[in-house]
Structure formats: C-alpha cells, structure tokens
Amino acid sequence: MRRTQTLYELLTAAGLVFAVYDFSQGPFVTTSALAAVLYAAVALGLTLLILRKHPGIAHGVVWGIAVSRVAGQLNESMNHLLIRTVPDWLVIAGIAPLTEEVLKFLGVIFICTCVIRSRHWADYVFVGVAVGMGFSVSENAVYYANMTLENLDSDLRGTLLALLVRFIANPLMHSFFTGIAAYGLSRRQPVRWLLIAMAVHFTANFGPSISTAFEDAFWPIFPTFLILIGLWVATIVSIVKLRKILPAEDTGAKSQLLGSKA
C-alpha cells in the first residue's frame, strides 16, 4: 500500500511539472490568462467548499490538473497516428474518451484505495467529480488561450467568447463523466461503468466532431444541440438526485444508530 501511495505521489508531481511546463510553452495573452485564473479560482473554490465534508477532494482536483496536459499530448499523438486511416469525425470524437477517462479514473482508484478510507459510494463519486473539475479547469485554460488568439478583432472579445462557449458546452461535463466511472468503482464494477463513461463522453464529442468534419453542411447543428441539451439535462438530474438521496441515506443511518443505542 505504501508503494502504491508513493507511486501516486510521484505520478502527481510529474504530471504537475509537465502541466506547468506545457502551459509556459504555449501562446497566451493577458486577458486569457486572467480568465483562466479567475475561472480556476471560482470553480475550484466552489468545488472545495461544496464538497468539503467528503474526503479526498483536494487530491482529486490536483490529480485532474496533473493529468490534463498528459491527456492532451496523448490525444495529439493518437490523432497523428490515426487521421490517415480513420474518418476525421471518429478520430475527433473517439480519442479523448479513451485517454482522458482512463487517466482520470486511474486517479480515482489511487485516491480511493491508498489516500482515503472510502466508506460510502458518495465518497467515490465526489472524488470523481473533483478529478473532473480539476481536469476541466486545466483544459479550459487552453481553450481560453487559443480562442482569444484566434479572435483578431479584440483580445477581450475573444476571451469573453471563449468563456461563453465553454460554459454552454457544460463546464461540469468532465465531473459528470468521471463521477459515472467512480460510481462503478464503488459498486465493484469498474470496467462496465468506465465503458459507460467513455460512451457518454464519445456522445458528447460526437456533435462537435461531425460539425468539424462537415463544416460546409448545416445539418450537424441539430444533433450537436440535441446532445448538448441532453448532457445538461443529465448533469442537472444527477445533481438533483444526489441532493435527494444523500440526506435520506444520512437520516436512515442516524435512525439506525439511535435505535441500536436504545
């Protein structure tokens, strides 16, 4: 167990070093850098505040940040390998779910087995949520930088547009995906639920991928919006159900405890 924890710590440290180096080498302007910092402060601050009663949240956030750029490099390398033999839309939609979900899920396994003592399925799920949020913050920083540079009219306008686009695209999606896989780990069905998380991630990427592959066509906008709306609905429904289930389970546990004392 100690060796596993040491491996986890070394991988986290290496990932963070690589993330910092990768960001430092990339192009960015002041407005996109400020947007990334402000978004990270708000998103991570709320995550740590809302989930403060659950163990391993800070570890999850850090792991998500650490593996984000590693996943980005793997995605790019696999894209170069497959782009000539596999259809564009399938490459764009299919690579990220494989690399990103496996790397994020690996962090959930490390944290829930050798860092914290997970006693409830929600402990697994919320570690997954934290990993996803850390990953999302790091990934969005790259999007802010790139979209700002692509807007030749104004850095401020480019940054605001990037913030809007990424918000519409659902900033909680990575938390949703990893939460699904983490739930499977709590139920001792990790492979099945990891595959489900990958499938949901693939579906989320499908709309943008066909829009890119058929950029001159108008029809891809319809499946894109349907998928986007479906993802938002699934995320909101999951949050509502968690808010209902957890207090009920806590109340039931307390009632059993009081009954045993009597």
Automatic annotation (TrEMBL):
Membrane spanning segments where? 7-24, 30-51, 124-143, 163-186, 193-211, 217-240
- What Pfam families does the entry give? PrsW-protease
A GO term, aspect molecular function: metallopeptidase activity
Using the record, list the residue span of the signal peptide; answer none if the entry has no such feature.
none
- InterPro entries the record matches: PrsW
Which superkingdom is the protein from?
Answer: Bacteria
Keywords, sorted A to Z: Hydrolase, Membrane, Metalloprotease, Protease, Transmembrane, Transmembrane helix
Under which name does UniProt file this protein? Answer: PrsW family intramembrane metalloprotease
Originating organism: Corynebacterium hiratae
Q: What is the lineage of its organism?
A: Bacteria, Bacillati, Actinomycetota, Actinomycetes, Mycobacteriales
